[in-house]
Predict the structure.
Amino acid sequence: MTTVELIISIAAAILIVLSGIITFTGTLGLVRLRHFYSRMHAPTLGNTLGVFCMLVAMILIFSFIHQKFLIHPLIITALLIITSPVTAILLMRAGIKRERHEPLTIYAPDEPGTMDLPTKDTRLVEESKGNAQPHSKVSDATDTSS
């Protein structure tokens, strides 16, 4: 085994392991995150970057074996980088449009730095129907009489 073969093999091995770690992390994000929009973000980034690393490793190995530059993995990479985020954006927009028609929950974290399941708040439904007066957070914060 020559030095060039060894360097290419080590680089490809590192890229393949990195690809697995990144893809696994994105999958964990899909399982662990509870909010729809967060769940869309993690696998999109993880899978795109994971497949990108795998395809770069494939380019290195097969270009060295065939002694010519292969364009097929670059085409696959370009299509993946374009289609994966676009698909995620379309799914998120569909979720936003659905929530406009069914405003039942608040999708904000209870504490900074945490993302929990949405909590049901009927004020949003009442405000959207015009049945209740808008809730003013400023007046609640300045009211110290209670």
